[in-house]
Structure formats: C-alpha cells, structure tokens
Amino acid sequence: MNMPAVKADTTTAIPVQGGDVLHMAAPRRPSFVTRVAPMLQSAAAVIIPPLVMIVLLLAVWEVLCMKPGATLPAPSKIWTEAHDLIVDPFFVAGPQDIGLGWRVLISLQRVAIGYGFAAVIGIALGTIIGQSVWAMRGLDPIFQVLRTISPLAWLPISLAAFRDSQPSAIFVIFITSVWPIIINTAVGIRNIPQDYRNVARVLRLNHLEFFWQIMIPSAAPYIFTGLRIGIGLSWLAIVAAEMLTGGVGIGFFIWDAWNSSRLSDIVVALVYIGLVGFVLDRLVALLATVVTRGTSAN
Amino acid sequence: MHPYLKLDHIGKSFNRGAAKTEVLKDISLLIDQGEFVSIIGHSGCGKSTLLNIVAGLTPVSEGAVLLENREVNEPGPDRAVVFQNHSLLPWLTVYDNVRLAVDKVFGRTRSRAERDAWTMHNLDLVQMGHAKDKRPAEISGGMKQRVGIARALAMEPKVLLLDEPFGALDALTRAHLQDSVMAIHQKLGNTVLMITHDVDEAVLLSDRIVMMTNGPAARIGEILTVPLARPRRRLELAANQTYLKSRQRVLEFLYERHRFVEAA
Fold this sequence. Notes:
Oligomer: heterodimer
Helix content of chain A: over 70%
Largest sheet of chain A: none
Low-confidence stretches of chain A: 1-11
Radius of gyration of chain B: 19 Å
Strand order of the largest sheet of chain B: 6-7-8-3-9-10
Number of helices of chain B: 8
Mean pLDDT of chain B: 90
Structural class of chain A: mainly alpha
Number of strands of chain B: 10
Strand content of chain A: under 5%
C-alpha cells in the first residue's frame, strides 16, 4: 500500500521515577504428575468403557450358561478347556496341532495374495471404467449383480476351474473383494473435479502424467473406501472358504473343532477372527489417512 | 503489424438435442502486447465462456482466436489461466503446485537448479515464498489465489487469463491482491485478459474495459479506454475526475442500458 512513512522523532521516552522492578520466579518445569495425568486420563476414557462392557457381557454369558445342560460353554469353562489355545498362540505340537496364531497367519497369507490381486486389478479396471461413459454404462449393471453373489457360491465354480483347494480359496477372496474396489475407483475417477482437469489441460499433461499427478491422488479417498470394504469382505470370505476347502487355516480349524465337538475352541477362534478383522480394517484405514493426507481436506 | 491477440468474429452456441442456445455472438476484439483488458458484464452473459474459449478449454462454434497471428484452439501454457477458485491441487504443497507447472513448461530447457530458482522467484513475486511447504488447505483464500497467480506467471505465458480471480475474496484481501497484480503487470508487462463483475476493479486495473450485453447471444456492447497514467494509486484515484467518469460510464452501461433482468 502507499502509506507515507511516519517519522518517529516526535516522541521521546520519559524516564519514570520510582518504578518498581518486579522479580518473577523462573517458571518451573511441569512436574511428572501434571504432564502424565492428562495422558492417562484420556487413555482411560478410551479403554475403561469397553473393558466395563466386556466384563458385563461375560458376566451375563456366564450366568446364562451356568445351569447344567446348557448347550453352549460358559466363559469359565472355555478358559479351562481351551487354556493352551488362549495363552500361547504360537505353539507347535504336531503337523495338525498348532497354535491359532499360526493358523491365522496361514489364512492371512491367502488373503494377502487374493486381496493383492483384487487391489491391483480392481484399481486398474476401475480407472478404465471411470474414464469411459460407455464402459460405465455397460459394465456397472453387471458388476452390481455380480457383487451380490455370496463368496461361497463362487467356490464350486473355482474348484472346478482350478482343481485344487489353494488357488480356489485365493480366487474366492479375489472375486469377493474386487467389486467394491472397481466400483469405488470408477466413481472416484468420474468425480475428479473439472478444475483439476482444466489445470491438466492448460499444463498439457500427457496421459501418464495425468494418471499419476491428478487421477490417482484425486481419486485416492474413493479408492481407499473400496479397499477398506474389500479387506473386510476378504476376511469374511476366507473363513467360509477354508471351512469347505480344508487345509490348516483358521476357517478349517473351526470346522474341525465342530466335527470333534470342541465348542470352546470354536469360541476362541471366533475371538481371533474378530480381532484380526478389526486390525486389518484399521491398517487399511491408517494407510488411507497417511496416503490421502491433504487430499480430502479441501 | 498484426495485433498480439485477436478474437475474430467469435460465436458460441450449445446444442442440447434439438434446442440450440446461442451464448456469444460475433465477438471481435484486438488486444496489443502488454495491454490489460477487462471484460465486464452481468452474470450469465457468457464472459467466462469467452475466457474459456481464449484459453482453449471450450471450442468455438464460429470464428477463431489468433495469438501472434496463429490460430489457437486447444489449451496450452502460453495462455495461463488463474481460475476463480484457485484450482490448486490439494495434495501438493504450495511449492510443488508451482513446480509442477515449471517442470512441465521448462523441463527440457532448464536445469533442475534453474527450475527450483524460478519456482521460488515466482512465489516470492506474489509474496508467498514463506509458505512454500504449506498445503493449500493450510493457507487462506487470498494466499491460495496468490499461489494460483504464481503458478500462471511461472509458465511465462504470452497472455495471462484471469477468471474473476478475486471474486471469492473479502474486500480487503481483494484490494491487496489487486495492488499486487498491478505491481506485477507494471514490472513484467504481461498481456492480461481479466473477467470481472466489479466496476472499481475493472477501472482500477484496466487499459480498456470491454462491456458485454446480456445474454443469450451476448455481444460486445461498448469498449471503454481508461486514460489513467500508471502506476495508479488507489487512494489518489478516489477523487480523480477521469477515474470517476470512467466508473460512471461503466455503471451507466451496466445498470441503465443493459440492466440485468432476472429470469422469471
């Protein structure tokens, strides 16, 4: 702006008579308690309510299954019967007698392969479909029908095609989790703001530059929504697929336990499945917040 | 001697099925190198469409745009656009937004160090060097628009196209940015085509003001030359007779002869 500079020589400092100098104590470092207490408090607010609810639910369960002749085991009975499964996830006592941690890892390996394929192919297909109005119109109804098919319904087809249980299970994971990834990616690509497209056109970005610089970052929040739904579905599918195909995964363990009437083991396995599914979901969500940092905040 | 930028009998109509809507009709305009021209008109008169045509983002139906006597019909960095809503890429930092343009335009002709220096030079030009590592979401609207201007300037465009660049800003920020744009225009001598609906802004910044009639089939109603010497100072102009007369002319055009009639 064009303000004339004011010269500062019109004022002079006047010494003040008898001014008291205030001595202030140096600020002390906050004590250990005052620093840690708020952290503990917020941690407690997150941890205590679910703990209370778990204890309550276990108590109700215990009471309901206490009477003799109850069909399902009470928590106390599970604790005594399946003690080794609960305390040591990674024991190896024989080729078919291994800890649940190992079984989960084997299932996770299958999920990793099937889901990995689904992620790569889903994002690639979704990108193509999102760019073409006609591909969208032609394929979207087909995908919408296909995605409602239960994972288990695909299993006989894939067993017939692959003639082996291992690739069949992986295929079921793939076919279950690929649809939300395709559909969400396509929607994300279609929703790239016209402004970004205009910027790309003024800069004359070529197709490859447009893909990496504009398309992927702009569609990333949608893509990660698809990936997150996909990981949940794959974890649902693997347990079901393993119950039918056998092997050493966590799904087969449940089926095996049912055949030998070890109900307590099944309950422990269910807890494992739930916790692992929760962790998988959180991992993808965490990845999403890291990768899409800044993208959605506009 | 050819004019620098020539809009030659431009017409634009949109077809939706059998219905044809004529937006612009017979727009002809000659702009010299280094000239600052504003296009003013009521909203919906097609002035943004006209700017998009010059940018190459919208194809013409009739006529042609010629830059240095060569027809342009697709977008390119020689006609850099400062978009109304800044259009910065939110996943890139301020620096990277400008650097993307610099790398694209000068990737083959300048070294890495030169491109870095040029990016910083343009950010400093709009006084945004201090925020180079911030993301667009972390800076204010006026700052975003400054970065948008830096990005456009960094392409060394032949023509700088401003699409209501200050429309979304508050009055004080707008005044600051107008002063910045005037200073930059003074320093670099760019050819600028600006869309605006702000009469004061048009008179303050422009050498000529192109006034558009209301659509449909909008045309150039009148062209006013603003004979004010540069550099122009906002405070001194407030009482300047030439300024006031120019302002009066534009206001009369917009609010008496071509009053905006609300569509029923």
